[in-house]
Amino acid sequence: MKAKVKIGNRFVGDGEPVYIIAEIGINHNGSLDLAKKLIDSAVLSGCDAVKFQKRTPELCVPKDQWNIERDTPWGRMTYLEYRYKVEFGFEEYFEIDSYCKSKGIDWFASPWDIESVSFLEKFNPIAYKIPSACLTDYQLLKKVSSTGRPIILSTGMSTIEEVKDAVSVLGKENLLLAQATSTYPCKVDELNLNVIKTYKEMFPEIPIGYSGHETGLAPTLAAVALGATFVERHITLDRAMWGTDQAASVEIVGFQRLVKDIRDIEKALGDGIKKVYPSEENSLKKLRKFKTEIES
Fold first, then answer.
1. pLDDT value at position 291?
2. Which of 64, 69, 152, 225 is the most exposed place for a label (fewest CB within 10 A)?
3. Cα(78)–Cα(83) distance, integer angstroms
4. pLDDT tens digits for 228-272?
5. Distance CA 13, CA 207 (A)
6. For residue 4, is it within any domain?
7. How far is CA 156 from each of CA 132, 178, 181, 221, 265, rounded to the nearest angstrom?
8. How would residue 296 be classed by pLDDT, with cut points 50, 70 and 90?
9. Cα angle vertex 280, ends 276, 281, to 5°?
């Protein structure tokens, strides 16, 4: 049985091309112009979708952190004020929706609270992503599940028991599961890519993928070789820019290389059936000098 889920106009899962998501998240730093440049970069790289994050700051920021001041590109302000600075509202998402449609790329978002789900529903999203931080927020999981849309569940910071419980709440239909480690950037020896194989054995009905927060590209490519049916990496114009996710992001040239290498790996993996290719025939004639019958 092949695990497949339809997202937008295409299937994601076993036997399908790897679905490549450029996670813009909050790397736009509250700038719609920057968001559009990141969308353009994802299109240029050949990504299938871009993803944002949507929060209601009062619900997502603990009250004891509301008034803690911090330095930002906009001056010194409270943490709650900062969260609003990097949060898009209806007008910005309306523009993002129109812009992505004009560029021929899908978009969706990670809602961090129930109000954000209701907000995003206004745009008829193709899917939702449950961030790792919300994996045990069963009220949010139930709200997202009630929309009937495909759901990608990221599993950083989670035990296998917590993952099983979240899958039980969401149900396996229309669900995709991503291995992740929620450190930004993540050390290579904590990526645990073999969890992809564990998930495939444990949840054969669910497409399994990878959400990476490492520096470099090799682990993401290894995830594809291990069977990841979708991958997500943060995208940025400059890893030195302001923002908590920038250092764990991939710049544009790197993203172009990542997409190209993923497509090459897909071709190189083949169908698993051993055969002699037509391109080998000359070598076969020239180099295979002996053919001895096996004694019975």
1. 73
2. 64
3. 9
4. 999 999 999 988 887 778 888 999 999 999 999 999 999 999 999
5. 5
6. no
7. 5, 9, 4, 19, 25
8. low
9. 90
User: Is the residue at 7 inside a domain?
Assistant: no
- Domain boundaries, position 224: 12-269
CB-count burial class (<10 Å; 0-12, 13-18, 19+) for 123? middle
Q: What is the pLDDT of residues 173-227, one digit of tens each?
A: 999 999 999 999 999 999 999 999 999 999 999 999 999 999 999 999 999 999 9
Kindly report the CATH number assigned to the domain that includes residue 185.
3.20.20.70
DSSP string spanning 38-85? Answer: HHHHHHHHT-SEEEEEE--HHHHS-GGGTT-EEEETTEEEEHHHHHHH
Query: What pLDDT shows up at residue 96?
Result: 98
* Partners of 208 in beta bridges: 177
Is residue 278 a part of any domain in this protein? no
Percent of all residues in the chain with a pLDDT value above 90, rounded to a whole number:
83
Question: Which residues touch 192 (CB under 8 Å, ≥6 apart)?
Answer: 179, 181
Compute the Cα dihedral for 257, 262, 266, 269 and give only its sign: positive
CA distance 265 to 177: 21
Q: Does residue 6 form part of some domain?
A: no
282 token code pair? 């000359």
* pLDDT tens readout for residues 84-137: 888 999 999 999 999 999 999 999 999 999 999 999 999 999 999 999 999 999
Statement: the pTM of the whole predicted model exceeds 0.70: yes
Chain centre to alpha carbon of residue 172: 18
Q: Are 126 and 159 in contact (CB under 8 A)?
A: no
Check if the beta carbon of residue 20 is closer than 8 Å to that of residue 230: yes
Mean pLDDT of 28-34: 92
Q: How many domains does the chain have?
A: 1
